[in-house]
Amino acid sequence: MKKLLFISVILFVLLFIQLSGCTDTSNNNDGFWDFIIPFVSSPEVDELLTNPKIVTMSFMYDGNTYNVDYIVYKGLNDYLASLPRTITYYGDPPTTKDFILRDLDQNHQKIVLMPLVNYISNFTENKDDQLRIAVSMVQHIPYDDIGLELGLLNSKYPYEVVYTQTGVCAGKSVLLTFMLRELGFSVVIFEYEEDSHRAVGIKCPYEYSYNGTGYCFVETTAPSIITDSDKEYVGVGKLSSYELIFICDGLSFDSVFEEYNVSIEYHRLLDLADLDGGTLSQSNYDKWMNISNKYGLL
Question: Which of 157, 83, 82, 155 is nearest to 113 (CA)?
Answer without folding.
Answer: 157
